[in-house]
Specification:
The protein contains 15 helices and 4 strands. It is of the alpha+beta class and about 325 residues long. A 4-stranded antiparallel β-sheet has the order 1-2-4-3. It is elongated and about 90 Å long.
Length: about 325
């Protein structure tokens, strides 16, 4: 599948899969089918009503407008999609990654006359899309738009949770000044971007981190890559304190007595996963996630919590014990 890399106005690179010719044709056929259905329904209504010629003319004008402006209206009000495009999960976007302006939608619509009506119906659009490098039909070229699949090729697993490999060299050592909650917020921002496509949140977060740490990324490093690097640097630095695992969060409190000293056997990534499960269970009201994670921790550490300790409290206690033990070890 052909892809296109789009750099947004916030300097974020997104890889999209370009809508295939077959998908575009099927979407067009669905839209034509809907147009035919509209004509049939209009004819049935007119035959049932059996009104005067003036009324028939008004109905004909209305239906003609519906058919003529079908694509333009749906693309404007359905974020670059007609019904056929939505079914085929493709949409129109601007070449800068933004939602097209009305003028761009209008240009695409006007050039349908050339693309689909002149010479053989649809021949110009078919040939142009087949030979264009992007590919685009003539209306897309003029309007500066392109049809892509609705799911970006850049996935959350590729940009938010890349593992740090052995021998990794931090780019920004000052990332160690951040806290666990800062990294969690960066993850949340990236998640929000992947779900909504709102690149502004990534830009704003990158600016905040740059100002807070007083750093400037190297030339060529866009905001998304910068945040990825900050996460990787933080993960590496927080796990490398003279070979001892550093705490994932601030210490609990002085005088705290761990309930499960076996928690020291865990790793930073284990505690991060426990936190993620607790958050996910709270958001989705899914206690099964808590139960499964608690069973995994119990089996891994070979421990049995007190009878009156529920699974949520158990996991929260494990986090506290790990933070306390890691802090005590790190201060030796």
């Amino acid at each position: 599948m052909q892809t296109i890399k789009i750099t947004t106005s916030q300097n974020i690179d997104i890889d999209y899969e370009v809508a295939g010719l077959g998908e575009r044709i099927l979407a067009r056929m669905i839209d034509i089918g809907i147009a035919i259905l509209i004509i049939i329904l209009g004819s049935i209504i007119l035959s049932i009503i059996n009104t005067s010629e003036i009324v028939n003319l008004v109905f004909a004008i209305i239906y003609g407008a519906l058919l003529g402006f079908y694509d333009l209206v749906f693309e404007v009000f359905m974020d670059g999609q007609s019904i056929g495009k939505r079914i085929m999960k493709i949409k129109v976007i601007s070449l800068d990654g933004a939602q097209p302006r009305f003028s761009q939608y209008l240009l695409r619509w006007l050039f349908r006359i050339v693309d689909f009506l002149l010479i053989e119906p649809g021949l110009v659009a078919l040939v142009t899309a087949a030979v264009c490098a992007k590919p685009q039909r003539l209306g897309d070229i003029v309007a500066g738009t392109i049809l892509i699949r609705t799911n970006p090729r850049t996935k959350i697993d590729n940009i938010a949770f890349s593992p740090v490999y052995d021998g990794y060299q931090p780019v920004f050592n000052v990332a160690g000044q951040l806290r666990d909650k800062d990294i969690e917020l960066i993850h949340e921002v990236i998640n929000n971007y992947v779900k909504t496509g709102n690149s502004t949140v990534v830009y704003n977060m990158a600016q905040r981190i740059k100002e807070h740490l007083n750093i400037a990324p190297p030339n060529g490093m866009n905001n998304m890559l910068f945040l990825q690097t900050i996460i990787n640097d933080y993960n590496h630095l927080s796990s490398q304190v003279d070979g001892i695992i550093a705490p994932i969060a601030p210490p609990v409190y002085q005088g705290y007595q761990p309930v499960f000293t076996e928690a020291e056997q865990l790793k930073t990534k284990d505690i991060a996963l426990v936190k993620e499960v607790i958050n996910a269970a709270a958001k989705n009201d899914n206690p099964v996630l808590i139960y499964n994670m608690a069973q995994r921790i119990k089996a891994h550490l070979n421990i049995t919590p007190p009878a009156n300790m529920d699974d949520t409290t158990f996991l929260q206690t494990i986090i506290k014990d790990y933070n306390h033990i890691s802090t005590q070890v790190g201060s030796l």
